[in-house]
């Protein structure tokens, strides 16, 4: 029995009073769309209202940290503050070191935003060596129906309720 994975949720959190942002890259669209769908599916299952799920897209994963911070600020200014943001990106290894540099810098910046903004910023970036790895983590391959986007939706609700 594999031990890796999130396991059962501690409890079913009620997200009915939460406002959650999703910022997604557009690179590797097929996988991105499945991950975003999975995150929204779980947010809705946890009673986050459709009108309280704010979705914006950016060109690629490199833009996620800036857009995450900007979306928090934009919603604050509109007096509709976000409780958490889920940045979603899919980075696929190419033939150069471009992948490593983007993965490393985006990961560090997204982690820093949690501390800088004192708000949950969920890590929704797949850093994959092959297309098959990416598809498997979005529930798009025969080898896996698990969609990591659903875990990210659940994490956003749990972190918002526990620590906001
Ligand atoms: O190169 N590969 C990828 C990528 N490059 C674009 C980068 O994120 C950015 O949008 C541009 O450099 C412009 O700033 N962005 C991804 O999300 N996944 C990739 O696999």
TrEMBL record:
One GO term describing the cellular component: mitochondrial intermembrane space
EC number from the UniProt entry: 2.5.1.78
Catalysed transformations (reactions): (2S)-2-hydroxy-3-oxobutyl phosphate + 5-amino-6-(D-ribitylamino)uracil = 6,7-dimethyl-8-(1-D-ribityl)lumazine + phosphate + 2 H2O + H(+)
Pfam families tied to this protein: DMRL_synthase (PF00885)
Top EC group: transferase
Domain of life: Eukaryota
Annotated GO biological process: riboflavin biosynthetic process
Coiled-coil ranges (or none): none
Gene Ontology MF terms in the entry: 6,7-dimethyl-8-ribityllumazine synthase activity
Keywords annotated in UniProt: Riboflavin biosynthesis, Transferase
Statement: the UniProt record of this protein carries the keyword ATP-binding: no
CDD domains named among the record's database cross-references: Lumazine_synthase-I (cd09209)
Listed pathway(s): Cofactor biosynthesis; riboflavin biosynthesis; riboflavin from 2-hydroxy-3-oxobutyl phosphate and 5-amino-6-(D-ribitylamino)uracil: step 1/2
Family: Belongs to the DMRL synthase family.
NCBIfam families reported for this sequence: lumazine-synth (TIGR00114)
Role description: Catalyzes the formation of 6,7-dimethyl-8-ribityllumazine by condensation of 5-amino-6-(D-ribitylamino)uracil with 3,4-dihydroxy-2-butanone 4-phosphate. This is the penultimate step in the biosynthesis of riboflavin.
Complexes and interactors: Homopentamer.
Name recorded for this polypeptide: 6,7-dimethyl-8-ribityllumazine synthase
């Amino acid at each position: 029995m594999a031990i890796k994975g999130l396991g059962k949720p501690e409890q079913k959190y009620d997200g009915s009073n939460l406002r959650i942002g999703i910022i997604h890259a557009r690179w590797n669209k097929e996988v991105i769309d499945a991950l975003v769908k999975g995150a929204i599916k779980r947010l809705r299952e946890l009673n986050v209202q459709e009108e309280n799920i704010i979705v914006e897209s950016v060109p690629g994963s490199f833009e996620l940290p800036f857009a995450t911070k900007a979306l928090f600020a934009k919603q604050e200014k509109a007096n509709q503050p976000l409780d958490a943001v889920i940045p979603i990106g899919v980075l696929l290894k190419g033939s150069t070191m471009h992948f490593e540099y983007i993965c490393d810098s985006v990961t560090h910046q997204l982690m820093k935003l949690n501390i800088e903004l004192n708000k949950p910023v969920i890590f929704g970036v797949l850093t994959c060596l092959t297309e098959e790895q990416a598809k498997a983590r979005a529930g798009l391959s025969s080898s896996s129906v698990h969609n990591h986007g659903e875990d990210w939706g659940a994490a956003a609700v749990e972190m918002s309720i526990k620590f906001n």
